[in-house]
Amino acid sequence: MSRNHRDTIAALLGLPPTALHLGKLLHPPEYERDENSGLGEIYTIAFVRGLDEHEVLRRLGAADEDIRLIEDGDYSYPEGPQVITVRRIGDWTVAIEDCGRRAHWDALGALSHDGGEAVAVQRHNYAQHHLTYAVDGRLITDINPAFPIDRHGADPDRLNRHLRELGIDPAADDSIDNPVPAALAIAGRITDVTITPQHLRRPVLGAAVPGSRGDVRRW
Predict the structure, then answer these.
(1) In a 3-state reduction of DSSP, which class is residue 181?
(2) Per-residue pLDDT tens for 55-75?
């Protein structure tokens, strides 16, 4: 991976370039340069198979009146609306939460209910990052991508082959220097979807969920 390519990926993910020295953890590494489409320090990207865009938004807590086109000027605020955008990529609906983490744990049960499948990558610079996988309403595994040995769920080792393919020993008590790219790489192997700057462009369908509406749908 060239230095310019590495710097572009780092800018997209909101990471310093030095965090990407383990280039083999990025799969695939096709990211276009787009200075205005970088993600911030807190976000969640959920990949959902089996639901359309509107239903994903509803199961993440949006009411019908919250669903609209999301523009460049729409942002999430601590006490204000929480912005979620959705788009269809292949067989998956991809939801991106700006400064949000609704698509996590219990919410993945709702997103994968009735035979569906859901993968979520959560970046949180001030807490723990997560890679979470659910099938048919069950939390299969939740992995700390910085320390992959730290995982739990109904079948915590379900994604171990993907870890090994990326050069990560699931049994080793090792830390990963670039956990967010590693988590996105594993999500990409499950879904065959790679997030590029094009997928972050607005306007796009989404929702601005009022801050008072904090609950996602449970199943």
Answers:
(1) helix
(2) 999 999 999 999 999 999 998
- Sign, CA torsion 93/45/34/201: positive
Instruction: For residue range 6-42, list pLDDT tens digits in order.
Output: 455 555 666 555 444 443 333 334 323 333 346 788 9
Residues whose CB is less than 8 angstroms from the CB of residue 20 and which lie 6 or more positions away in sequence, other chains included: 1, 6, 9, 10, 26, 178, 181
| CA neighbor of 146 nearest in space, from 119, 116, 123, 162 | 123
Three-class SS of 76-115: CCCCCCEEEEEEEECCEEEEEEECCCCCCCHHHHHHCCCC
**Residue keyed to tokens 């659910």:** 134
Cis-peptide, bond into residue 28, ω within 30° of zero: yes
pTM for this model (two decimals): 0.82
